[in-house]
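Regression test attached.
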Amino acid sequence: MTSAAEQAGGPERKGERTRRRILQAARRVFGRVGYDRATVRAIAAEAHVDKSSVIQYFGTKQQLFREAVAFDLEVDALTVGGDPAASAENYLRAMLQRWAADPDSPMAVLLRTSLTSEEAAELLRRHVTTEAIDRIARRLEGPDPRLRAALAGAIMFGITTHRCVLRTPDLAGVPLEDILRLATPLIRVLLAPPENPSA
Amino acid sequence: MTSAAEQAGGPERKGERTRRRILQAARRVFGRVGYDRATVRAIAAEAHVDKSSVIQYFGTKQQLFREAVAFDLEVDALTVGGDPAASAENYLRAMLQRWAADPDSPMAVLLRTSLTSEEAAELLRRHVTTEAIDRIARRLEGPDPRLRAALAGAIMFGITTHRCVLRTPDLAGVPLEDILRLATPLIRVLLAPPENPSA
């Protein structure tokens, strides 16, 4: 695990590398056994460091978990011209691509652990509400902006979970563009102001 | 736990009750700690029976899991006049109501455990494919019937998970009818034959 670059680094850079290695090990362990069953001891073993190093860098298991699953949904950066409806494809593409790139990404680990741990569910609930629903809803016109933003998020998580985590064959075995072509219009309709409320 | 009716039952009825009690205990334990970490010993303790009784009734942990999370999606019964698009509200309402009625239902436990266990993911994948996607897709007109059916399922699971398991406040705190009003048209569009393919 020790590269030439690592050997060349000073004490601060070595500390950063150890921190990063512990965070990566934590994501693997939390993702595998869930929040409640993961132990600092198991994470230390996975990272090839002493248990005391984990405590020194992160304090408690709860604090380590929070750092390990911290991620930026980047809703503002993905929102084109301040228009969430026009950004539907951006949102869904980003979520599907990030997840496919790393099944142990902070977002993926948080979602997987959230279904078997109230601690993780609470973190995800709060994060999605403040980082996605709040940011999208305040830009929506028409009734029920918060509910429409929340539904859009739930739908994108559902598609991502089935393609990337459960790997349902009919979703995992098709090109990304086919999914975007069929699913983007649905999310766009949800986020666009209703043109004909009586429809 | 022993009712008058239970005391009055013969040996066969007592056996059925014990079986049911073990299955209920199994769902609670699997739902709480996941498939991999659940033990026959812990399930026996939760059900207040001997470990040997669990083995006698169900054989292995794997067989017990399969029975504990067996459920019928009832896609055929929920499909109105053989038309999946017209049945979109039925599908979504049934899923949301069943989950709300029992967070330890077989379907809920299977979904929760599926994100941290390949054994559970494989069961869910196969069940959703044969019981939902196959049954809906063969009734769809137009291109990509399997992908459209799979997306509809993933979307419904996403909404149900966020409302009933994660309890995202903006989804958990609204009446069921508000969710159906906004989400049903999206699923209907996905399942209806495309009227204007160039749109």
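Expected vs. actual: identical. The radius of gyration of chain B is 20 Å.
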